[in-house]
Amino acid sequence: MSSLGVRRQFAAVSLALAGALVLGACSGSDDPDADAAQSPSSPVSPSTSSTPSPTPTATYKPASAEGPAENVPLPEMPEEAKVESKEGLIAFARYWYELVNYGYETGDVEPVKAISGPDCFACQSLYSGMGDVYGTGGWIQGGDIEILTLDSDYQLTPEGRRQVLVSVKQRDMVYWDGTGNADRRPGDEISFLQIMEISFEDDGWYVHIAESTGD
């Protein structure tokens, strides 16, 4: 499969602020004569401590002819997507597509791989396609997937999975090969359907199948 043949197979920062804790201790004598014998103490200036400035968040920069996207935020799984329910399944499917878009924009497919099985054909196409592009110094501009509809009857298949039907479109995409050459691919004019089969395992939802239905 060509590096961009994957497009038909697919159609998601908190700052830690350090605080300063100043501990003060006072001591004195119970002997009033001892206190009287002490010379007046010099005024002590209140101690001051500077509050660390927040670490600035790196600015996101989309891909362009000059280079790949920079500082792309990794999608965070919503809490709802961790729940074994129809709503949780739908939220998880949306999150999965966010990770696919993240893979297109960065070349990093490990987040998708972590929640997808080895028999997912579209997943394997994504892995190899992004490896071909980014592994040779190229990058992708655009090509993100837009979800139009996403639904499930939440019935179990004989394999114990839940099916999700997704209507998607993929936007215009430009493949830059790292030497200034561009391969432009128009986006989808009409949407197409994909089917997913997902099961809830001990550690959450897991994608087994994601493929186009041919409709």
Question: Describe it for me?
Answer:
The strands form two sheets. Strands 2-3-6-7 form a four-stranded antiparallel beta sheet. A three-stranded antiparallel beta sheet has the order 1-4-5. The longest helix has 21 residues, at 86-106. The radius of gyration is 28 Å and the shape is globular. The protein is an alpha+beta fold and 215 residues long. It has a domain at 83-212: Nuclear Transport Factor 2, Chain: A (Roll). Helices cover 21% and strands 22% of the residues.
Write out key terms for the chains shown.
single chain, 215 residues, alpha+beta, four-stranded antiparallel sheet, 4 helices, 7 strands, globular, disordered N terminus
Main sheet: strand order: 2-3-6-7
CATH class categorisation of the domain at 83-212: Alpha Beta
Main sheet record: 4 strands, antiparallel
| N-to-C series of helices and strands | HHHHEEEEEEE
Estimate the strand proportion: 15-25%
**Share of helical residues:** 10-25%
CATH architecture of the domain at 83-212: Roll
Radius of gyration in whole Å, from Cα? 28 Å
Gap between N and C termini: 21 Å
CATH topology (fold) name of the domain at 83-212: Nuclear Transport Factor 2, Chain: A
How would you sum up the global shape? globular
**What's the tally of helices?**
4
